[in-house]
Amino acid sequence: RKTSLVEEFLDIDEALIALEKNSDLIRMEMNIIEFPLFSRSRKIKIDQVKKYYFASDKSSFLEVVPGLNKTIPGEFEERVFIALLKIFKIKGYSQTFYCTASEILDNLNIDNYNTRASFYSRIREAVSKLASTSYKFKNLFYSNELGGTIDDILETSILSYHRVTAKESTKEEKDFFEDKRIKEVYKISLASYFYENIVRKGYLAFDSDELLNIKDSVTRSIYTMITKWRNDELYLKRPAFYIARRIPLSWKPETVRKTIPRIEESLIELKNSGYITDYNLLKNGKLDKAEFEIFF
What kind and span of H or E run contains 106? Predict the structure, then answer.
């Protein structure tokens, strides 16, 4: 197949250096909630590969490669992933678990939908994208076994799955089909590296319903990151540049004036919803030097 590649420099190394020079904060290992696993763009294309460089010398990067004739996961796939993690918790944290499309839909926390049937095909496609998309981490992924970042390349999907029907179900799986209305069941297996990272350092620190109640994906991303960064403290200060590039939002000279109000919009939503108590924008003379103070 013919693929196209879109490269983006997040300049996280430069942001961390600036941050560490101006504070006594301890540099923390990144985990999956801080990676751009799900695209925020509305312009993603079929067979388009996205590569995010976290260091200006290209020594660390994340490459997201979609499955054949698919796009990389986006906002809806993120919601399906969070719903699956909610089910994963309910089912006892087993790396492999079973669920139906109805269970996934019930846990998406979608307020309005015309017909449930219209969502089933979207859920099926979303699960397929999560399984077929390859994530290649270079000097980024945290390993619980090593107690630190894997220095070389790690390539993995988020999960694998099998749609089980009553006809092909095993003896142990027959119980899922006692309700004759159920035609298929998803057997979900979280990839080992993601499973370890999720359980020990990732999404399980958050209430899935809270995440899904935040409808805007940028706001959800900001919420998860500032919650991790504050580490139970009631005050957090971060450069606007640092926040923007972790989502990621554009930070070009011509886009800074749009990006900072976009972050503010999310912080206002978080304040109105009770996730934070307040925030301040410190302009520091130039917008590209602006910082956000956030109160909890």
Answer: helix 101-106
